[in-house]
Amino acid sequence: MSRIGIVGGGAAGALVAAQILRQASDATQIVIFEPREQLAEGSAYSTTDELHLLNVRASGMSALPDQPDHFRAWARAEPTEFVPRVRYANYLRDLLSESAVDSDSVVHVRDLAVSVTPRPNGVRVKAADGSSWEFDRVVLATGHRPPAIPAGIRVNPKALPYVSVDPWAPATSLPAGGHLAILGSGLTAIDAAMSLLTRDEDASVVMVSRNGLLPARHVPPAAPIPALLTVDDVAEGLPLDRALQVVRAAGDDWRLAIDSLRATTPDLWQALGPWRREQFARHLRRLWDVHRHRMAPSIADAIDRWRSEGRLEVVAAPIDSIDVSEGRVALRSADDQLWIADRVVVATGPNDSVTTCPLLGPLVEEGTLASGPLGWGVDVEPATLRPRDHRGNPWPQLHVIGPPTRGTLFESTAMPEIRQQAALIGQLVRV
Fold it and tell me: Labelling 425: which of 76, 192, 385, 417 has CA 20 to 30 A away?
């Protein structure tokens, strides 16, 4: 019997486990290290709030590349419907259960993996309880790092009780009719605002981020168009400002222009080269994110309504400090703007830096793995998703899936990309 270890049991870990079992040619046992009580949740799908919707239509959320209607049929949803995220975790658990041959096919170890050691004929994983496990192969599915207070913000220790780093539970200690300050204005911040403003009609929110940009809204789908940019365009040195002009020239069809790049985004990212990747990350990444990762129309409608009513304010400003002020919390920007709130929630999005991961960070520091471009995640072979060491040599018994591949592939956090990665790993493990 083949024995495969998976470090991380969120959406990516559960899906790659299902794919390995579906494609296995011999008896296979999967051992998943995940401290959460249930698999398939992670930071993306652990919310239980029905107000938090998928930001992709039901027709685009199949976990199986060869069955594009799989999720829509499971959910009994309309193709253009935006389904609550809590249902997607149930979907992935059902898929994993259906993929298992018997009850011993999947073992859920409710503990953290604290070390991964490649060995000549396999991989050793050590858990936090001191137990040691030997595997033929291991898949690293560590997912997103949770939000944290940005390093550049000065925080009075007395203010910490007023600050939450859990964006999906920001209002647990907020007084009725209270005022919430949210650091960030992306989809995570939208989740926090939705939960509060829907349930407390007297509450108000201010979102503060460096750029003050909200995610764009989805519109009814249209026929896809050919990719406006090719790998050859980028490899031949197309400047990023010129690439931006090409997308802007699409006018009202900019969504189609962005979506046309989806299948080739990893190749385009690698063709940019180190200097232009850094330039993109510094100047254009946020613009890309707000246009690429959009809000469901019903959520966008609510956000527009709350802004017009004055219950939601969105501000562009870099926060310099967080302090206390007469039993409330005070946020001050670098240009001396001041906001007083009852509570603050950090919704700055995931941290891509590999150094913040307690498992992958030490592996990079010791040279077992190499950090990905820009320090995002770990460096992987695009064709095999095997991580490289500091000499550039891939580890044959290791694979990486999801957010830790972002430095190499850029787009690796949404289901359309993760399902392709899971299918690839399932095929490689079978071979």
Answer: 76
